[in-house]
Amino acid sequence: MKKVLIVEDEESMRLGLGDNLKFDGYNVDFAEDGEKGLNKIRENKYNLILLDIMLPKISGFEVCKTIRKEGVKTPVIMLTAKGEEIDKVLGLEIGADDYITKPFSLRELLARINAVLRRVENDSEEQIKIGKLEVDFNSYTATKNGNNVSLSSKEFDILHYLWNKKNKNVSRDELLSNIWGNDVYTTSRTIDNFILKLRQKIEDNPNDPKKIITIHGIGYKLLT
């Protein structure tokens, strides 16, 4: 049984989501503020985290940012009543896997949860090497010259997609559609920022990339 942590300060929302997820077969744990949520994430293993942004004590943004820095790869879906572009972009750039704006239907949320979990479960590649970076998509770990390299779950997803399309042109629209889905708002700038971060971890000289190259007017190509 998959275990989900709901970090949400609104009691009715927290309990309502919990009841519905339990009915759908999930084991559910709760936290009503960011501090308790962060502690639970550090102390327990979860398959998925539903993380509200506007939380007491520590914001959802800070919780997500902190756990990614600490190497926690558990998928995160951010929940918020805000719909501004900057919030969505920031949430995804700090390592969230998806983003859903309140009010949302239970059917939509379950579809997002299933999509994220399916993406994680389908990672069955053996360890591969891109430049000096060794990546294991099974364990979501990466090393370079024997040292651990921290990649966000979205960076792993983008790298995995580029690897599966290696030596082929991949457009920004294709990455947006396949990594974030058509119903999640992102921009080409978001993609470019993720590629920049990946180059810093892969390339000998990120300013003169040899592995992830830009295809002007289209997108990117991973060379092997």
Query: What value does the Rg take, in angstroms?
Result: 18 Å
Query: How far apart, in Å, are the first and last alpha carbons?
Result: 39 Å
Proper CATH architecture of the largest domain? 3-Layer(aba) Sandwich
Say how many strands there are: 12
In spatial order, strands of the major sheet run 2-1-3-4-5
Largest β sheet strand count, sense and barrel closure? 5 strands, parallel
CATH homologous superfamily classification of the largest domain: Response regulator
Oligomeric form? single chain
User: Would you give the CATH topology of the largest domain?
Assistant: Rossmann fold
Approximately how much helix is present in the residues? 40-55%
Structural class: alpha/beta
Q: Secondary-structure element order, as H and E?
A: EHEHEHEHEHEEEEHEHHEE
Work out the strand percent.
Answer: 15-25%
Could you say which overall geometry the principal axes of the C-alpha atoms support? Answer: globular
Mean pLDDT: 86
What number of domains? Answer: 2
Treating each run of at least 4 consecutive H or I residues as one helix, how many helices?
8
